[in-house]
Amino acid sequence: MNKAINIQQHKGRRALIISLVVLVALIAFDISPFGGNARFYATWIGCGDKPVATEGSGYLNSGAIHYYEPSSFPGLHPTIEYFCTPLEAEKAGYSASPNQYEFPHLQQGI
């Protein structure tokens, strides 16, 4: 009887440890530059609206206006920067066009 209880407790502990390892791995992936959703949602909450992204794609990010800063080496800087408004992105130096320097929101304020 005592041996059966020990086996059940061992299985329960093992399931808990495996669940915690999977949860920590998912959180670590999300915080890393490869995941990135935690920063996206934190910026969304801070802005009060869906943020503008410098690059990227996906279901939730596909509607954002993309501001590109081309890199000479692809993948050198894989993180995505988020801004509350297109004006903030242009103030940070991001162009509205990947082919030429365009700053339509800065020019509207002139």
Layout of strands and helices, then pairs:
Layout: H1 2-31, H2 37-47, E1 52-53, E2 82-83, H3 86-91, H4 104-108
Antiparallel strand pairs: 1-2
Characterization of this structure:
The chain is mostly helical. It contains four helices and two strands. The longest helix has 30 residues. The chain is rod-shaped, with a radius of gyration of 22 Å. About 8% of the residues have low confidence.
Radius of gyration: 22 Å
What is the domain tally?
Answer: 2
Terminal Cα separation, in Å? 82 Å
Mean pLDDT: 73
Order of helix and strand elements from N to C terminus? HHEEHH
Which oligomerization state do the chains in this entry correspond to?
Answer: single chain
Query: Spans of 5+ residues with little confidence (pLDDT < 50)?
Result: 56-64
Q: How would you sum up the global shape? A: rod-shaped
Write down how many β-strands occur, each being a DSSP E stretch of 2 or more residues. 2
Helix content: 40-55%
Strand order of the largest sheet: 1-2
Number of DSSP helical runs: 4
Main sheet, how many strands, which sense, barrel?
A: 2 strands, antiparallel
Strand content: under 5%
Structural class: mainly alpha
